[in-house]
Amino acid sequence: MVNCPATDYVLNKSMRILLAEDERKVAEHVRAGLAAEGYAVDVAHDGDEAIWLAESNTYDALLLDIGMPHKDGITVVRLLRRKQILAPVIFLTARDDIEDKVRGLDAGADDYLTKPFSIAELLARLRAVLRRQRPQTTNVIRVADLELDLLSHEAKRGEEKIELTPREFSLLEFLINASPKPVSKTSIIEHVWDQHFDSETNVVNVYIKLLRRKIDLPSRPPLIHTVRGVGFALREEEPA
Ligand code: CA
């Protein structure tokens, strides 16, 4: 599944997208769909306008129609790539034409969508190219031999797969992101549970216990440590 909520947080929603599409109705439909997701969208209605906007602004991704007045989408990408404008490009093409797609990808595009497409599919493809663009927001996070794949929601210790509930997964993700620093129970509650959750409860201890049973098998060095007076830390060695 491309549409995975766990990866959304790694993408800064205040991303700026250039949409070049000469059919005004289609342009407005796509623009509205992107705006509803929190993207900032500039719209160009021909190839020259697209180039001008792409040169004057910094975009996180470009969505380019292939058949446009003045310059087609493929020419636009070639020119932009030559000018070292390397934002990911998704082509929007009316023709389900393999040759067009190959030419587009060869010109430097990252993906293409054949019209008519759904906004949901466009958003998923867009997230995918944005993720690929940002290696620091990798899908896999790890500490020692413990690995979480934020896209597939798989957890592994070494080669051993670990089955986690969604809540356990979120808690582990939070601990890994903080690692090697310890996190307090309060911050765990705030980040992993609803922040209005009654923080007097013992729920964090319960979940840490559940996680330990799955992560810290007797055969392996423990990773989840209790840091007295602070909370919990996920790291390789015992805290001093
Ligand atoms: Ca067109």
Say which molecules are bound, naming each kind only once. Answer: calcium ion
Distance between the termini: 42 Å
Structural class: alpha/beta
Chain-averaged pLDDT: 84
Number of distinct beta strands: 12
Rounded to the nearest angstrom, the radius of gyration is 23 Å
By CATH, the topology of the largest domain is Rossmann fold
Count of separate DSSP helical elements: 9
Largest pleated sheet: 5 strands, parallel
What spatial order of strands do you see in the largest sheet? 2-1-3-4-5
Beta-strand level of the residues, as a percent range? Answer: 15-25%
Query: Roughly what percent helix?
Result: 40-55%
CATH superfamily of the largest domain: Response regulator
CATH class of the largest domain: Alpha Beta
What CATH architecture of the largest domain do you see?
A: 3-Layer(aba) Sandwich
